[in-house]
Amino acid sequence: MQSPSQPSSGSYLFFCGLSAVLLYGISGGIRSDIGILLEPLREATGLSYGGLSFAIAILQLSFGFSQPFWGLLAARRSHRFVLLSGVGLFLLGLLGLSLVHSLLGLVLTLGLCLGCGAGAISFGLLLEAVIFAVGPQKGALVSGFINAAAGLGSTFFSPLLSWLSLIGGIPAVSIVLSLIMVGTLPFLFYLTRPPKNAVHQEKGPISEASFSTLLLGALKRPEFRYLLGAFMTCGFHMALIEAHLFSQLLSYGLQRPHAAHAFAAYGLSTVIGALISGFLSVHISKSRLLAIYYGFRAGLIVTVLFFLPKTFLSALFFCVGLGLSGGATVTPTSGIVTEHFPLAQSASLVGLLFLGHQLGAFLSAFWGGMTVAATGSYQSIWGIDSVLCLLASYLSAKILPHQQKNTGSGHKA
Fold it and tell me: 182-211 pLDDT, tens per residue?
C-alpha cells in the first residue's frame, strides 16, 4: 500500500476532492433517485409494482454486501481498478435497462450491476482513495464534502430523470446517464494517479480469525447493538424514500414536474442536514442527536400523512423534513463508533453498520412494494416506518456518552 509522505499543493487537494465529490455525487445521486424510474420501467417492461420493488430491493442489498468485497479488492489490486470496475458495472446496468423485459433481466441489470457498481463507488472507498492521494489530515477535511455529494447528486438527477423519462422513456435515460458515467473517467484517473512524492508503507492484512473476533467482540457491546438496530431502521426509512416516495407523490395527484421538484428539495435538504449535523456533533451528545433525528422523523411522518392535506406545499414540507434528518445520522453514528472503539477498528465496524443499514433497505424496498400492491395505499408502510423510527430513537437514547460510560463503570473502551 502506498501513502504520500507530504501531500501536494492546494490545487492538487482541490482537484482530488472535486474528483471524489463528482464520482460520489453521480453514483449516489443515481442510486438515490432510482425510484423516479418505477413508473417508466413499469410501462416499458409490463412488470408489476411488486416485481419492480423487488429489483430495487436487490439493488439495496447488493450495494451493501458488495462494499466489503470491493474494499478487500482495493487492498489487493488498487483503488483505480475497483473504481473502474464500478463504472463498468454501472454502464452495463444502465445500458441493459433499455433492453430488458423480464424480472430476471431487471434484477441482473438494475439490482446487481447498478447495486454492485454503486458499492464500488461508495463513500468509504472514495475517502480511502483521497487519503491515499493527499494524506489523512487533508482527507478528513474533504470527507464532509464527499458525504454531502450524494444529496447534491440527488438534487441534480431528480428533475433530469423525470424530464428524460417524459421525452424519451427508459432508452433516453439509459443513454444520457451512460454518457455522464463515461464523463467521470478523467476525474477517476486523476484521483487515483500515484503521487509523485509517495512512499511505500506496508500494512498487514487483518486475518479472518481476527476480523471475526472483532465483530463478535463488538456485538457483545450494548452500544454497538443499539447503533446497529437504529441504523437498520435508518436503512428501512431511507430506502422507503428512495424507492417509493416519488410514486407516492404522483398517487396524490401531483404533476410529475412538481413531484420531481419536491424530490430535488429532498436531495438539497440532505446536504444541509449533513452539514448542520457535522457542526452539532461537536457540541451536543451524539446519542442525543440520533434520538432527536429519529424521533423527528416519526413525528413528521404522522403529521404529514394523517393530518395535512395532500398538496404540493405539504409534499415539499415533507421532503424537506425528510432530507434534513436523512443524511444527518451518518456523522453521529460513525462518531459514536470512534468514541467507543479503537480507531483502527472503526472502519470495519462502520462497514458492518452499513451492512445492517442495507438489510433494512432491502426489507423496505421489497416489503413496501408488496404492501402497496396489496393495499393500494402507502399509509401502512409509512406507519410501520414511524414505529421503527420511534424504536430507533429509544435505542439511540440508551447509548451512554463515552465519558459518562467510563465514569459510571470504570471501564475504558
Answer: 999 999 999 888 755 443 343 444 444 455
